[in-house]
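subagent[fold] <- orchestrator: predict structure for attached chain, return tokens only, no commentary.
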Amino acid sequence: MFGDSFKRKYALSDKGIHNMKMGMIWTVAVNLLMMAGMGLLYFMMQDFIGGLTNEGDLPNTLLYIGLTVLFVALSLILHTFQYSATYGLVYGEVKNTRITLAEKMRKLPLGYFGKRDLADLTETIMGDVNRLEHVWSHCLGYLYGSYISTAVIAVMLAVYDWRLSLACLWGVPVAFGLLFGSRRLTKKSSVISKKAGVRVSDGIQETLENIREIHATNQEQQYLDALYKKIDAYEKNLLKGELSAGIFVNAASVIMRMGTATTVLVGAELILSGKISFMLFFMFLLVITRIYAPFDQSLALIAEMFMSQISASRLTEIYEAPTAEGTEVFKPKGHDIVFENVEFAYDDKQVLSGVSFTAKEGEVTALVGASGSGKSTCARLAAGLWTIDKGKISVGGVDIGTVDPEVLLSDYSMVFQDVVLFDDTVMENIRLGKHGATDEEVISAAKAANCEEFVKKLSNGYNTMIGENGARLSGGERQRISIARALLKNSPIVLLDEATASLDVENETKVQEALSALLKNKTVLVIAHRMRTVLSANKIIVLKDGKVAEEGTPNELLKSNTEFAKMVSLQKQSIDLASAKA
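subagent[fold] -> orchestrator:
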């Protein structure tokens, strides 16, 4: 009943299936107890009427009071267990689902996130899991428990009279047949609404991320108008989906409760023909006041249950995405980085084709070339952040594709042009480089990265909150914190991607001084557009159209008067021209 297909349909774990079964069991117990209450009332009325008509003894009042007290006590106990099973356990499943998603995404290669919309992923983690939580807690256990309890009650009623039993329950399968028949339409509208919702999230995120540029270019109204259109479209899709689902749900509810009318009609006919007693008819009248109640909540939420399958499929897509895995043993013989005929494509665009070079330990290897030539891609591939399509990348003779990414990255320090900082103190932002580092170690790394100069000017020194992504710091200050973080980590391999491209001359000089402390005796792979920043490199790799155009020392390449020499000459002319105009 609850196999792998069911788990996939509702994105449940094995523990989630167990929890749902517990909720279902307690729901069956509660439903049967409620029907037993109707039975208690029936027998009490039967004894009372029998005592009056036959001039016998009246019912034992104390017995029925005792049974009523027992019924109330059992009802309280069973409802408590049902609540715990359908809500308490499910909330634990929600927590585990989010943790599982986070753990899964932690192991996914960076290329996965390059192909997925971040707003879409956020919607999956928050919105889709919330929607599933509601279905897990409010629908599945109740629905399947109601199926079982109603089947048991149907059999018991059929023992008394199959005709009244059929008149009472015929609407249940017809109602649910109608709902399940409308499932395709409900899912289709859910998919459309989900896409519209993601577009709204995208619009909000884009507006917030570019708020300064929007204000600077007086584009506030245009962006707001575009966002309003997305919100209106989302609202319309939601209304259409709710309306179509509501029509089927209400129709199913009406059909199911038509059993009340057919029970009265059939019962009246059977009484008039003398085929049943009034008390039997009275029992069925009591039954129909309760028999449909277990389905009320599930019926109202069954459309949401169908829509939740879209959310479950989005979670399953993340669960089944291939992760970057490997051995946890990484013992390279040195830290030479070797590219051997590496090929890489982003979607259908070929980025690298047959790239081969070696970045030796203790040397600075610079990657240069025009924008789009594959420089940054090489740096990310070297760290295993993306997975190559063909070829091999090794560190110290070990294929990095065979090593667990987290183990591999323990040997890497990275400083990029776009520094990522957190809304925390200077101290804690630097400490990210080495978990558990002492304050003394952090301050020592900060001094080596020339951070001391600006930290002293902050209100609380190293304990100053720097704002989201270092909003209270300048570009050069953020860059130096990033270098301090790398210095603290002290890894044997350093990747620098345009680390000084956006800095002024004064800040660039200070960052270069900090970098000199970081790069000593390391394997360094540096990317730069400014040719003068790579003239001191031990080796230069020139990339063009995703291929190695030439390589050698700066002097060798300058003398050869080829691609690198042309790039240096063009930049020199550009600088001279700018100086002349100034």
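orchestrator: received. Logging for downstream: The mean pLDDT is 82. The chain has three domains: 4-319, 335-411+492-582, 417-490.
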